[in-house]
Each structure stands twice: as C-alpha cells, then as structure tokens.
Queue: 2 jobs
Job 1
Amino acid sequence: MMLPTGKITKYINIGKTRTGKLVFKKHDLSIDWVQKSVLSSIKKLEKFYKIKSPLINLELVYSREEFNKIVGRETPEWMVAIALENKIYLFSTSIVEKFSSHKKSSLKKIITHEICHLFNNKLNKNILAWVDEGTALFLSNQEKPEDLKKTEWNFFIKNFLTKNIDYQSFCTHNGYKISYWAVRIIVETFNRDMLLNLIKINLKKEQGKRAENIKK
C-alpha cells in the first residue's frame, strides 16, 4: 500500500489476534531492526504493566521539517520522537544523527519510551504528566544519576505533583529528570503496583471531586 507521503505500510503481529503497523520509506534498511525493537519493547512492557499491549502504529520520519509539521511547532534538537493520539512518530536511523543530537544507538530506548506512553494512555487518558514521563524514562532506562536542587523538588511538589502545568514550565524546571527520580523512588521504596495505581489516577475525575467538595 503506497501512502501519499511516498511511504509504505508493513503490518506486524503483536499478538495472536492483534496487528500493528510500521510506516516507512520503501528503501529504509533499518525497518527490520525497528520491528525487532518494537516487539522486544512490547514483551518487556506487557510484563511490567500486566496488560496486553495497545495497538502499535509507528511512522518513521525523515527530516526535522517533516517532524515539525507533525508536531505543529519548531522542535528542539534533542526531540526525535513523539506519541500523538496513539501513534508514534520516530526519526529514522538513516537521518537521526544528521538532524538531532542523538546517536543511532539511543533509538532502542526511545522506542521503549514512546510505547510506554501508549501503555499509560491505555490505562488512563488523563494521567498526571510527571507520572507519564517518569514511568517512560524509568522503564526505558534513559536517565543517569544526578543530584537535583532542593528548589527544583520544591517546585515539583508545589506545581505538578497533583496537577498538570504547561509543557514549557515542565521542561524549564527539570520536570523530566525529577519525574524519573520520583518514579524510581516509588518503585524501589514500595513496588510496581504502587506505580500502577498512580498511573490509574484520573486527573480530571480527581479535579471534579475537589470541585464538588468545594461547592458543598
């Protein structure tokens, strides 16, 4: 099947009765590696989440301009993948080192990270941003040990522990790294089930309950 973008679709089996899709340029030699990485990530994440994988729809991107059009804005050099409405867009290994600060070897962890978001979304479409990002970073093993400032932790507790703030504020206040450490501490101090319970907290429902209590 030829797509308007000059790409083709390959269907992959992710279960006995479930099929995922990979969309890519016909002569992209990395597609077999991408497929193996997707299936490997699914196997790992199904074991952690204790649920069947959502359907995977992954499209490879071949330039920063194409990626910016997909996201709808200029994107930073480090950004090479995004999960939007249950679809993952990912830089191809053929161009990732040319158009970003990433090495090809980093894409396996990035694939796992983005598939995590699909698992989280399957459990809860209104997940807290720090739980969503922290879980993805933790399960893809993307962060390294680093001290965080007390002021950063204080901002986290005050501003996005129980609510979502805008993306820019999340980034500028080290939201990704703090989220990783918060999730890691929860899993290592308590257990996986504690994290799974946090993932299932519906932010909109909780806000609605608080609003009702205020009215009463």
Note: The chain has two domains: 7-123, 129-215.
Job 2
Amino acid sequence: MISGPKRFLAARLGAQELTLERGLVFVAVSFMIGWTLKIPLVQGDPLLELATDAVFVFFYVLAYGLVLFLAWRGVGGIRDVRTSLAVYLYQAGVLQFAFSVVVLAMMGTLRAADAALADEVYRAVRSGSMLSFFVGGQDRLLASGAFRTALAVAPAGFAAMVA
C-alpha cells in the first residue's frame, strides 16, 4: 500500500509517461468517482452542487500543488513545474477520492443513526452558518451518540489518507 504508489510514480517518471494532462485526467476521474458515491447525500440541485464542488476542488488542488512546488524548489527538490504538478496530481486524485469516502462514511453514519440531526447539519452547511452551528451547539452535538459515532469515523479515514 505504501510502496505501490511510489513505484508507480517512479516508473512513470522514468518512462516520461507522467504528464500534466494525464494527472489532470486522473484527478478528474477520481473526483467524479468520489462525487458519484456522494450523490445520495446531495439535497439540492445535483448539477449545481457538482459544478461548485468541481470548481472548489480544481482551485484547491491547483493552489496546493503550486505551494508544494515552491516548497520543493525552495529546498532543492524537483525543479520542473510540470513534473512536480504531474506527480502531485496523481497524489491529489487518490486523496480526493479518499476524502470523499471519509465524508460519505461520516455523513452516512450520522444519517443512519439520526436523520434529523443529519438534516440540521446539511442546513447549516448550505446556509453558510456551519461554524456557528457547530460552535454554538457543540454541547448538544457531543451529547448525541450518533454525532460522536460519525466523528469516530473521521480519524480512521484520515489515518488511511496519511498512510
């Protein structure tokens, strides 16, 4: 699990198969698979949500990739921006998919255990009041067994992403 992706990227770098275009396609496919898994959680217009999610993911992947390139360059690492971004895009695609699975597992757990609370969370996210919802209602949320169970899913998912 750990060495497989490294060998895959090293083989592609050595054969000059690792291109920016293929990396972008990989991220796009990973995003679409992950987004398709989350369709049952969509409560608004699916096309609008797909578009906003795609734009958000595109910009955060691009911005984070450029920051990583600058950091690598600052310490004498990979000097070619295209190669650096191509490597990062493959990694970002895997992480994007894993993050989708974590969100699906958390929200699916919450919905299965307490559908009313899951709906409240969705309303807070959609209205832009998520921070005040979680901060202002943290005692009530932490008292909910369903919410605590959903929270317990996150560390396992994020540990898998780190690995």
Note: Residues 3-162 form one domain.
